[in-house]
Amino acid sequence: MKLWTRWMGAVALVCIAGTNASAQIAGSAHNFSSYGWSGGEICKPCHTPHFAIEGMPRLWNHELTTATYTMFEGETGTAVDNFDYASRMCMSCHDGTVALDSFGGQTGTTFIQPRSNLGIDLTDDHPVGSDAVYPADRPTSFNPPSADGRTVTFGGVSLRLKSWDDAGTIKYVVGCTTCHNAHNRGGYPHMTQSTMASSQMCLVCHIK
Ligand code: HEC
Ligand code: HEC
Ligand code: HEC
Ligand code: HEC
Questions:
Q1: What atom of ligand 2 comes closest to residue 114's alpha carbon?
Q2: Which of 58, 140, 196, 203 is most exposed, with the fewest beta carbons within 10 Å of its own?
Q3: Tens-digit pLDDT profile for residues 3-21
Q4: Would you place residue 23 in the very low, low, confident or very high pLDDT band (cuts 50, 70, 90)?
């Protein structure tokens, strides 16, 4: 996905739209209830109150990707080993290998639209997971994380790093949900966690 070429568009959108009124999932691209395959529900493609996938948090209901990716730095890595759990959840629709309607134990046939398909080559995407361990020791380049390592706060915005199990050692990394809110909280374009006006979200971490 060409993340880089699109920031300017995102900034422009924010200026026009600001924080919109439908700052919840119902008003977002993640409200699938109008698609036939969703059964008319909003949460169910992703969560279930019963019979969730064992071993996953958040009562997860969507079939998980097992893909091997070309990671940002060019090496290969699997969703199982190299991602935080939430990024793996996202990529279970957004890498194009698992159907949108593969949830609740059924195998679906509808795949994500090309414009939202990041694919399995992540070399052109912002690093996540094993490629994005948050550096606590580069104070001229990165704002310091909180004492417990879990959040970064700057300019009144706090972003959550995700825990990632590096073969038994817990590290805090940038994941999809560090920058995006799956439920459209805030109502920012592209479901970002905070405004992209003046690239504010990027500046929470990067000292530039
Ligand atoms: C497109 C997938 C998707 C849909 C649809 C979705 N969620 Fe989520 N939800 C997630 C993901 C991914 C997480 C985990 C986020 C994390 O831990 O970083 C999550 C986490 C949660 C959590 C726990 C943490 C939190 O963020 O509050 C709750 C509660 C939740 N979802 C409720 C709901 C409800 C209720 C609905 C329907 C109205 C819903 N979700 C729809 C993807 C989705
Ligand atoms: C059940 C499948 C599914 C899961 C799981 C899922 N998405 Fe999506 N997502 C979609 C679909 C479908 C769209 C709309 C695609 C389109 O219309 O191009 C979408 C759209 C988006 C968009 C574009 C929104 C916009 O307005 O431009 C973002 C950003 C996004 N998803 C991020 C995430 C993140 C981050 C996660 C994990 C927290 C996630 N998604 C999990 C299916 C999913
Ligand atoms: C460092 C922050 C950051 C991370 C990490 C991140 N994104 Fe994004 N993403 C953005 C921003 C900002 C935009 C909006 C700018 C744009 O259009 O490219 C965006 C746009 C998107 C879009 C909309 C595509 C489009 O061009 O309309 C999707 C889908 C998406 N992200 C999914 C993901 C998924 C899945 C992950 C995890 C693998 C992820 N993002 C990780 C910041 C991030
Ligand atoms: C939550 C913290 C965080 C946020 C927010 C964030 N980044 Fe990053 N960014 C990182 C980390 C961590 C790395 C990996 C650093 C490393 O390993 O050297 C990184 C790497 C990068 C790189 C270097 C890639 C390379 O060639 O090595 C660029 C460029 C970048 N980010 C741009 C952005 C932009 C643009 C945004 C806003 C859309 C953004 N970042 C938001 C934490 C963040």
A1: 18
A2: 140
A3: 554 544 444 444 444 444 4
A4: confident
